[in-house]
TrEMBL record:
The keyword Transcription regulation applies. It comes from Blastomonas natatoria. Keywords: DNA-binding, Sigma factor, Transcription, Transcription regulation. The keyword Electron transport does not apply. This is RNA polymerase sigma factor. Coiled coil: none annotated. One of its GO terms (biological process) is DNA-templated transcription initiation. Residues 52-113 form the RNA polymerase sigma-70 region domain. Residues 144-196 form the RNA polymerase sigma factor 70 region 4 type domain. NCBIfam families: sigma70-ECF (TIGR02937). Belongs to the sigma-70 factor family. ECF subfamily.
Length: 204
């Protein structure tokens, strides 16, 4: 399906917990605890349950799909090495995994030398990791600020930013969806992020 039809430019919605999602979270936690015991089959289970989501986290920060895929592989290596430090009493499994993915992607961005339209310090705020309910509640104020500031941007800039950060689309995909040149999309995102950062600074 063409990205032109997939793109809607809407603010991401919260997904309420259901019995099925609660069971899935419990299964993921159990698998991650088994990874801590060096269970390779459990790691494959964790990968199958979370790779799509963690790839989205990496892509929203890295922007480049190839880089996001490389970072994702490194993420699961870190998961294998650090699973013993996972504490269910401190964070849900998905929140713990998303934190590793986010940090790995931000580390990758900081290692790059080219001019980049995405400020690294803003990336962590913009990425919606869909953490556990308590974490989501603690982020409500920040999300409200981002929503208000996005509302102050020109619609095209706001839509391009949402497409890149919340839908994980690349520059060419956003350009196709919005029927604009790639250079125009890059300019919209770069200028929009500058305005967004200024707005967020005023609200702090």
């Amino acid at each position: 399906m063409s990205n032109r039809h997939c793109f809607r430019g809407r603010w991401p919605r919260e997904h309420p917990l259901t019995p099925a999602s609660i069971e899935r979270r419990a299964d993921l936690q159990a698998a991650l605890l088994r990874v801590a015991q060096q269970d390779r089959e459990a790691l494959r289970t964790v990968y199958a349950m979370t790779s799509a989501k963690l790839h989205g986290v990496c892509l929203r920060i890295c922007i480049d799909r190839g880089a996001a895929e490389d970072v994702l592989q490194n993420v699961y290596l870190k998961v294998w090495q650090r699973a013993g430090s996972f504490d269910p009493a401190k964070a849900s499994a998905i929140a713990w995994l998303c934190a590793i993915a986010r940090n790995a992607a931000i580390d990758w961005r900081r290692s790059q030398r080219y001019e980049d339209p995405l400020p690294v310090d803003l990336a962590e705020t913009l990425v919606d990791v869909d953490a556990d309910p308590s974490a989501a509640l603690s982020q409500d104020s920040e999300r409200a600020q981002i929503f208000r500031c996005l509302g102050e941007l020109e619609p095209a800039r706001a839509s391009a930013i949402k497409a890149g950060f919340y839908q994980g689309l690349s520059y060419p995909e956003i350009a196709e969806a919005m029927d604009k040149p790639v250079g125009t999309v890059k300019s919209w995102i770069r200028r929009g992020l500058m305005q967004l950062k200024e707005c967020l600074s005023r609200e702090q």
